[in-house]
């Protein structure tokens, strides 16, 4: 799937056969992008899927090798599918790669009764362990203090914020799942937090990230198209399966240790609570627990940390926006205490900046693919049961009918004339409907508390003579290329 995202975001044709839904006449102009755009602002104007929607309408089909997918575009049509027909568009496709990795278990690739029960359990357990409450707020604030200290140790010199941000965010989800945080220089923790695999250091999240980056490679497309043949062949696709085996071994060991010290009457965290849950039909067993924790770690770390990296980049680029955030922090929080979620309603500008960063950074551009669970019609077209659906979130977050200046960074998208925060229905970075991001509330707490804590104490700027670059890469998320940043004390 990422291959498709990567190639489409890069503006390449990737050998797709295009089909239109019946009755739609394309206009004369050629919708294909002319170049590989590297400027982020230009990029958003040239997204091939958005252009294809202009040519073929808000619903069209693509043939991806042997599979067919229907792309749904624009706020109104995506909402009609994901929200108004929520139960029909709530399935997931299990590709041969995931079939081999987790056999459709876990939270994000599962279906039917098992998915519903696992999701319900995960959401209530996240709440029980503090999501949306003061308990988790204090965990995040404690982590913000550690992050600030680590950044201050850089003494204003240029550094790459990726590892520190990943480590801090991974600590939050880790405290919910395993009941513990790790020091940033803890090798155990390095296993969880590193994003790029240093040569010869096969750590766990390193392995995950490394494997995710492999999802960009064409050989995985081949594996999905010809699994029986590819299973027999040597090649880099085997690295993915080897790496996942090691990650699963690490998580299994964590789960095993928990079982040994388990006190049923006093659940310490997600893993302990899972042991108490008994529903064999929904597969509440140790194997599934392993895949659920893996999903939560992957989905709960890379996404939020990538958004924070984009936020720092936009602050470097738009110094006047950063100054206005500083002013609001001074007025509402001051320097004597840490931020709190209770401050958010009093900080409309900061809230709007965070929302606008999420909108324009568009980190999950094509959403996760969905599958129809029964026959339906959408926008007048018949869509049979079992059809793959691409709900194109880019077309929602940049929908010309919903946003005043869709292609520029503009916090006023979320402010009214008197400077009050306004919610926008088309703000869908977490998607919508029954499979809407399960960690939305946690991500929102993380983003507000980390962002305000950092800007309360620090000013971010580019190293001398360096212009912030919005070049990106597409892996699990659409993320900035590695960059250097300077942070000075306010
Ligand atoms: C800025 C941060 C985040 C963004 C932008 C984001 C975005 C998304 C999106 C677009 C989806 C696909 C929804 C769909 O299929 O329609 C998703 C699913 C998911 N997210 Fe997030 N996410 C974020 C943070 C998190 C966090 C912190 C967690 C963990 C607690 C998490 C856990 C999940 C899970 C488990 C799923 C699969 C849900 C399912 O299939 O039922 N996400 N997320």
From TrEMBL:
<dbReference type="InterPro" id="IPR017972">
    <property type="entry name" value="Cyt_P450_CS"/>
</dbReference>
<keyword id="KW-0349">Heme</keyword>
<dbReference type="Pfam" id="PF00067">
    <property type="entry name" value="p450"/>
</dbReference>
<dbReference type="GO" id="GO:0016020">
    <property type="term" value="C:membrane"/>
</dbReference>
<protein>
    <submittedName>
        <fullName>Uncharacterized protein</fullName>
    </submittedName>
</protein>
<keyword id="KW-0408">Iron</keyword>
<dbReference type="InterPro" id="IPR001128">
    <property type="entry name" value="Cyt_P450"/>
</dbReference>
<keyword id="KW-0560">Oxidoreductase</keyword>
<keyword id="KW-0479">Metal-binding</keyword>
<dbReference type="GO" id="GO:0020037">
    <property type="term" value="F:heme binding"/>
</dbReference>
<dbReference type="InterPro" id="IPR008069">
    <property type="entry name" value="Cyt_P450_E_grp-I_CYP2D-like"/>
</dbReference>
<feature type="binding site" description="axial binding residue">
    <location>
        <position position="437"/>
    </location>
    <ligand>
        <name>heme</name>
    </ligand>
</feature>
<keyword id="KW-0472">Membrane</keyword>
<dbReference type="InterPro" id="IPR036396">
    <property type="entry name" value="Cyt_P450_sf"/>
</dbReference>
<dbReference type="InterPro" id="IPR050182">
    <property type="entry name" value="Cytochrome_P450_fam2"/>
</dbReference>
<comment type="similarity">
    <text>Belongs to the cytochrome P450 family.</text>
</comment>
<keyword id="KW-0503">Monooxygenase</keyword>
<dbReference type="InterPro" id="IPR002401">
    <property type="entry name" value="Cyt_P450_E_grp-I"/>
</dbReference>
<dbReference type="GO" id="GO:0006082">
    <property type="term" value="P:organic acid metabolic process"/>
</dbReference>
<dbReference type="GO" id="GO:0005506">
    <property type="term" value="F:iron ion binding"/>
</dbReference>
<dbReference type="GO" id="GO:0005737">
    <property type="term" value="C:cytoplasm"/>
</dbReference>
<dbReference type="GO" id="GO:0006805">
    <property type="term" value="P:xenobiotic metabolic process"/>
</dbReference>
<dbReference type="GO" id="GO:0016712">
    <property type="term" value="F:oxidoreductase activity, acting on paired donors, with incorporation or reduction of molecular oxygen, reduced flavin or flavoprotein as one donor, and incorporation of one atom of oxygen"/>
</dbReference>
């Amino acid at each position: 799937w990422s291959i498709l995202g990567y190639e489409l975001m890069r503006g390449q044709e990737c050998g797709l056969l295009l089909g239109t839904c019946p009755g739609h006449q394309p206009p004369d102009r050629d919708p294909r992008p002319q170049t590989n755009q590297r400027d982020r602002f230009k990029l958003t104007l040239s997204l091939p899927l958005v252009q294809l929607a202009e040519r073929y309408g808000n619903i069209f089909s693509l043939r991806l090798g042997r599979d067919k997918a229907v792309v749904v575009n624009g706020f109104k049509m995506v909402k009609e599918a994901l929200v108004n027909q929520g139960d029909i568009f709530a399935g997931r496709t299990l590709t041969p790669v995931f079939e081999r990795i987790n056999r459709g278990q876990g939270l994000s690739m599962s279906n039917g009764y098992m998915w519903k029960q696992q999701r319900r359990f995960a959401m209530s357990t996240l709440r029980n362990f503090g999501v949306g409450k003061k308990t988790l707020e204090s965990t995040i604030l404690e982590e913000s203090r550690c992050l600030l200290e680590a950044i201050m140790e850089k003494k204003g010199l240029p550094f790459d914020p990726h590892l520190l941000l990943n480590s801090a965010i991974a600590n939050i989800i880790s405290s919910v799942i395993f009941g513990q945080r790790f020091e940033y220089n803890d090798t155990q923790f390095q296993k969880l937090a590193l994003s790029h695999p240093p040569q010869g250091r096969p750590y766990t999240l390193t392995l995950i990230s490394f494997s995710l980056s492999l999802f960009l490679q064409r050989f995985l497309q081949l594996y999905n198209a010809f699994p029986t043949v590819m299973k027999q062949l040597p090649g880099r696709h085997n690295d993915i399966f080897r790496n996942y085996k090691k990650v699963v071994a690490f998580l299994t060991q964590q789960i095993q240790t928990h079982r040994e010290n388990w006190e049923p009457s006093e659940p310490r965290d997600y893993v302990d609570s899972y042991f108490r849950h008994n529903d064999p039909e929904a597969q509440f067993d140790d194997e599934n627990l392993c895949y659920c924790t893996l999903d939560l770690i992957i989905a709960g770390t890379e996404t939020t940390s990538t958004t924070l990296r984009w936020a720092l980049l936009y602050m470097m680029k738009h110094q006047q926006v950063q100054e206005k955030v500083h002013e609001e922090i001074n007025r509402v929080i001051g320097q004597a205490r840490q931020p709190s979620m209770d401050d958010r309603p009093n900080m409309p500008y900061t809230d709007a900046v965070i929302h606008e960063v999420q909108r324009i950074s568009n980190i999950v551009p094509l959403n996760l693919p969905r599958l129809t669970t029964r026959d339906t019609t959408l926008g007048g077209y018949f869509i049979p049961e079992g059809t793959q659906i691409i709900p194109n979130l880019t077309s929602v977050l940049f929908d010309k009918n919903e946003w005043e200046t869709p292609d520029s960074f503009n916090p006023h998208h979320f402010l009214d004339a008197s400077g009050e925060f306004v919610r926008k229905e088309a703000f869908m970075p977490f998607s919508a409907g029954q499979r809407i991001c399960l960690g939305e509330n946690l991500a929102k707490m993380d983003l507000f508390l980390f962002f305000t804590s950092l800007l309360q104490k620090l000013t971010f700027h580019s190293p001398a003579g360096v212009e912030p670059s919005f070049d990106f890469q597409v892996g699990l998320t659409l993320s900035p290329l590695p960059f250097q940043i300077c942070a000075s004390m306010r």
